[in-house]
Amino acid sequence: MIGKRFNKLVVIEFADRIGVRGYVKRWICQCDCGNKTIVRGHNLTSGNTKSCGCEAGKSRQTKWNLRHGHASNGYETKVYVAWMNMRKRCYKTNHAGYERYGGRGITVCERWMTFENFYEDMGEPPETTGYSLDRINNNGNYEPGNCKWSTASEQQSNRRYKYEK
């Protein structure tokens, strides 16, 4: 991969492996604009990532960087991804989790439809890995007072079973 060009990016060195078994390789790339960025190998070869995000307005990552300033190495932050996924579960009928959330009437409060408000209320998840957004009352909506950052084991104990309505 080193030395290969993918659109505006040239791979300059291997960065690391991520994922449960370390199958996902990431590469440090130099963009034609001069910036360096870390990109997953499959995003380079598939053409999903074409630059460091320097072409303002052409990608969601770039809009995110300019609007919120919370991106890390060109990737959306954990708190932003949690916010996006929360909304998708409740409102995108083709989302895998829709039936268990939006399909049951679970909604996102009006205040949290804006990322800045969600971030102000929830803040960053704890630094250690494994924390995700959790509703305290499984039949309640996503809103202040009903959400917290929880570990996987905490979420497991707050689980709703299929026969519960």
Brief overview:
The protein is an alpha+beta fold and 165 residues long. It has helices spanning 41-46, 60-68, 78-91, 115-122, 152-157; strands spanning 5-6, 9-18, 24-31, 36-40, 132-135, 147-150. It folds into 2 domains: 5-68, no CATH class; 78-157, no CATH class.
Overview of this structure, please?
- With 165 residues, this protein is of the alpha+beta class.
- It folds into two domains: 64 residues, no CATH class; 80 residues, no CATH class.
- It is built from five helices and six strands, in the order E-E-E-E-H-H-H-H-E-E-H.
- Strands 1-2-3-4 form a four-stranded antiparallel sheet. Strands 5-6 form a two-stranded antiparallel ribbon.
- Strand 3 and strand 4 form a beta hairpin.
SSE map:
Blueprint: E1 5-6, E2 9-18, E3 24-31, E4 36-40, H1 41-46, H2 60-68, H3 78-91, H4 115-122, E5 132-135, E6 147-150, H5 152-157
Antiparallel strand pairs: 1-2, 2-3, 3-4, 5-6
What is the string of SSEs from the N terminus onward? EEEEHHHHEEH
Oligomer: single chain
| Backbone structural class | alpha+beta
Radius of gyration over alpha carbons? 19 Å
**Poorly predicted ranges:** 56-67
Q: What is the beta-strand fraction?
A: 15-25%
Report the principal-axis shape: elongated
The helix content, as a percent range, equals 25-40%
- The rounded distance between the terminal residues' Cα atoms is 51 Å
- Tally the structural domains: 2
Strand order of the largest sheet: 1-2-3-4
